[in-house]
Amino acid sequence: MTSQATAPAAAEIRGTAGRSAKALRSDRARAEARLGWYLAGPAFVVMLAVTLYPILQAMYDSLFRYRLTAPDDRSFVGLANYGVVLSDAVWWQAFGVTVLITVITVAVELVLGFALALVMHRAIKRLRGLLRTAILVPYGIITVVSAFAWFYAFDINSGYVNTWFDWVPGIDENLNWFAEFGTAIFVIIASEIWKTTPFISLLLLAGLAQVPGELDEAAEVDGATWWQRLRRVTLPNMKAAIMVAVLFRALDAFRIFDNVFIMTNGSAGTTVLSLLAYRTSIGRLEIGLGSAISVLLFLAVIGICWIAIKLFKVDLAGARGES
Amino acid sequence: MSALTTRMKVAWAVITVLVLTYALFPVLSIMATSFKLPSELNTGTFLPSQWTWTNYNEILGPDGSARDLFLPALRNSIGISLIATAIAVVLATLAAYAIARLDFPGKRLILTTALGVSIFPVISIVTPLFNLWRNIGLYDTWAGLIIPYLSLTLPISIWTLAAFFRQIPWELEQAAQVDGATSWQAFRKAIVPLAAPGVFTTALIAFFIAWNDFVYGISLTSTSRARPVPAALAFFTGASQFEEPTGAISAAAVIVTIPVVILVLLFQRQIVAGLTQGAVKG
Amino acid sequence: MRRRTRALVMVAAVGLLAPLAACAAESGPPVLTWYINPDDGGQAEIARRCTDQAGGEYRLEVSVLPRDAASQREQLARRLAAKDTSIDLMSLDPPFIPELAEPGFLAPIPDDVAQRVSQDVVQGALDGATWGDKLVTVPFWANTQLLWYRKSVAQAAGLDPATAPVTWQQVMEASKSQDKYLSVQGAKAESLTVWINALVESAGGQILENPEAPADELTLGLDSDAGRAAAEIIGTIGKDDLAGPALPTEDENASMTIFQGDRGSFMVNWPFVWPATKAGVEDGAIEQSVLDDIGWALYPQVDEAQESRPPYGGINLGVGAFSRYVDQAFAAAECIVQPENQVYYFVENGNPPSNTTAFDDPQVIEAFPMAPVIRQSLEQAAPRPQTPYYNEVSSGLQETWHPPSSVNPDTTPQKSTDFITAVLRGDQLL
Which of A131, A248, C144, C297 has its CB 3.0 to 4.6 Å from that of C161, i.e. a possible disulfide? Predict the structure, then answer.
């Protein structure tokens, strides 16, 4: 840090000693670049090492028919594993379920998260700390713990939900939530929404803070209703924040694993892509097939990102303050 | 703003109750379960009719059957998460400083990489990691979890800190130097106090993320040597392998939630600031 | 209890300091690690007893595996595939033994040991410990399911399972006529495979016709009269709502809860339900009258002309092929399975012995009045298909026979045959 602070001064002295301004700039730039990489390099290398190597290994493994308990039968099969996966209804079913969960959670969380962000943004001083604390609890809680909490509440034997809500049509003491796809996915989605809405609402809160207050006040003076102000002033000014929040949550929801693993372990048609990958490579020890699923899952995530950036023009770097 | 009208007061009261119910109900739910007797778990009521510490005794008491699973797991979780957090924060502080203050080629590349790593599907890399770890002896060790946890904690630490650092008025450093301080003094007196809250917040967020991990925990460990709490819950058992350990799991769930609630209570303002600053900049 | 705890703490400490312990072990007796399925502390106590008896030949320490059998297998298979030298002894669920035996992950049992440990052992347990005509694991304890019934319900329905074996048909009709729930395991889990296998075997069939064949040559025996008879029973219980709404998620524990409740009638389940119900009475959550109302009999028959083939479970001991102390590990295994340890394990943890002499112990009869029925059930029991591809077969069955209400004798056996065959050939995902 100190070297950075003193480097320009030193360079200037050298500069006056007769070098051209251009050389000076490039010298300074080179020193700065070197320092930059010294400082940021370790983090960069670590990030690459823990992700790039494994995914390359997975790509390689996916070209073999290879079962961990039969190491001698390993054989090269080219892209056949991908053929098996992509032509299988199980994959597409899991894909569909994953997309369904992603779309519903993100949509609901966007609305709910916005409401919570407004609450935090507008809250009177005395309540602000309390409300923030409460909203942060789901954020901090372990996903597995949250999954157990929801599971025990809804479970037909240990749960109380059926007793509490038996006045709702369709709910009675005989409703087995985890036996049918519709109800099982409902609980899974509800627990996911509960746990992750705080995150999205904090991202939206950041966006809210950037809406210029004067604009809102001006609109109010002009007699605009609350709803009009929200639609015409607040939301358009938050577009970047909303886009980033949606993309982040969508990618996170697409990786959903813990809740499904704990609550249904994929029964009643609730298998998601991460669970399918887990079941194939860790449960069945089919390293080849499992790696193919892992690679496809990875490509799907990249795909979502690409679509978001190209189609919806989510400017991640801009959003990160890199304008 | 003028004094609140009665209507506003009522509205805020309602909102507060709604938010509190939303946020805390599942926590209370599992807490209530944790105080039920094993034989009372299936009565379908929310509150236990007879409160008992039995389940806590199972996981903490000297005779508890799940104690030898839970306590080592708790120690592992705390140790591994703290170390992963510390390493991530140190590396991220250096990187974020460079990103915020220096201009160098590859800056965007680093930020993009951080983004890419943070969206990475964990499940995709767990099998290759497992194979690599067992070959180099990292399987079922603390280091074997700390390293992959960095892939979870580093990216968000880098963004959060980079955003923090961008807001620090670095001129203060020069000003202090002009006033005769050495550059180290200038840094320590002028910059550290400004940067510390950001670093601290980042550490909190990183800790939550490491504390939450489940997939690495179940895949890369096999004994109490390194198994963290979320993974250990799957090892609990009732009096026989067929009986469900609902009570012990609930009690353990409550225990591991307590630190989260305490941290949130103490540092809600910092966490909110950290997450919102690191996230979006118009 | 205190002793056990201390032993466990020591185990945990050793686990933590394993690298150090490995060095320290050079001077002292070798430390054997025994990977156990979670239980109520019985295996840790047996490990302590055997360490004492070994007189310095070895020290036995336990390390716990996950709760469900499939995850236990995942952990062990992955470590063995990595040639892990720290696995000396393993508590193995029988269906997964061939998968570990086939690639040579289990150390071969010396003939003299094999001969000693198979003496007086019930047939079901011997079958489960064998792969390719050789004993590959040491039979430890053996489990089987009984038919449990509420005497009041059976009497009202005019059925007396204690005097003569009953059929599934009778049990289903009886619980239906009394408007009660029949407790079976319909959850999408290993317990469903246990049920399907027992039904198919009881009807005289087999899930796999050639379980020792390689993956792409395995032939299923489901598309047969026996398979259809099994599907008929499961489908009817599902469609006619004989088991109640919990069926699609009902595991052993849930079955017991329903059986203990007001609508309990008949149940197929492992003997753990007896000590568990007694504990419930002690806690005051279950009435003594419920306990007094419980009767037991052999597993129901599918066909009244044919003895039933009850489920077989339990645990056998395998010795890791890469262990540094194979001889000591076999010595330890022999110590563990001594009849007195099996008696202790049955009485304290409710896990029945595989050795017939253990059944004669008076403590056993005292704790488990149904011990003679358990013993007979074990003699009749049929293991699940013994194949290295058991995981695929079992998961494939669960995929196609769940939920129970969807099971149709005309289509399900055929569908599951096609599905499992495709999975085994690598043409389809699971």
Answer: C297
Q: CA A156, CA A177: separation in Å to the nearest integer?
A: 7
Q: Is residue A37 part of a domain?
A: yes
Domain chopping of chain C, boundaries:
2-136+313-375, 145-310+384-424
CATH topology of domain C145-310+384-424: D-Maltodextrin-Binding Protein; domain 2 (3.40.190)
Expressed as residue numbers, the domain containing A242 is 80-319
Nearest to C311 by CA among C429, C191, C223: C191
Does residue A253 belong to any structural domain of this protein? yes
Q: Are residues A47 and A99 in the same domain?
A: no
**What part of A 253-272 touches C (C-beta under 8 Å)?**
265-268
Top CATH class of B67-279 equals mainly alpha
- pLDDT-derived band at A152 (thresholds 50, 70, 90) equals very high
- Is any Cβ of chain C less than 8 angstroms from the Cβ of A64? no
Task: Give the chain B residue whose CA is nearest to the CA of A3.
Answer: B183
User: Looking at residue C6, what is its pLDDT?
Assistant: 46
Contact B71 C12 (CB under 8 A): yes
Please check whether residue A250 lies inside any domain of the structure. yes
Subunits in contact with chain A (3 or more CB pairs closer than 8 Å): B, C
Tens digits of per-residue pLDDT, C21-79? 444 445 678 999 999 998 888 999 999 999 999 988 999 999 888 888 888 888 888 88
ipTM of the complex: 0.90
Nearest Cβ partner for C249 among A88, A174, A176 = A176
User: Are A152 and B214 in contact (CB < 8 Å)?
Assistant: no
Compare CB distances from B225 to C18, C78, C275 and report the shortest one's residue: C18
Nearest-angstrom CA–CA distance, B213 and B217: 7
Distance from CA of C343 to the nearest CA of B (A): 16
**Low-confidence winner among A71-85, B15-29, B96-110, C43-57 (lowest mean pLDDT):** B96-110
Report how many Cβ contacts below 8 Å link chain A to chain C: 86
Residue A149: CATH number of its domain = 1.10.3720.10
Say whether both A27 and A160 belong to one domain.
no
Which residue of C246, C388, C427 is in closest CB contact with A157? C246
Segment 14-33 of chain B within 8 Å of chain A by CB: 15-16, 19-20, 22-24, 26-27, 29-30, 33
Chain A's closest residue to C251, CA to CA, is A157
A265 CB neighbours in chain C (<8 A) are 188-189
A75 falls within a domain: no
Instruction: Say yes or no: B60 contacts chain A, CB-CB below 8 A.
Output: no
User: How close are the terminal C-alpha atoms of chain B, in Å?
Assistant: 27
Number of domains within chain A = 2
pLDDT in tens, A214-271: 887 888 888 888 888 888 888 888 887 888 888 888 888 999 999 999 999 898 899 9
pLDDT tens for B113-172 read: 888 888 788 888 888 888 888 788 888 899 999 999 998 899 888 888 888 888 788 777
Residue B138 sits at the chain A interface (C-beta within 8 Å) = no
A210 and A251 both lie in a single domain: yes
- State how far the Cα of C193 lies from the Cα of C393, in Å rounded to an integer: 9
CATH 3.40.190.10 is the classification of domain C2-136+313-375: yes
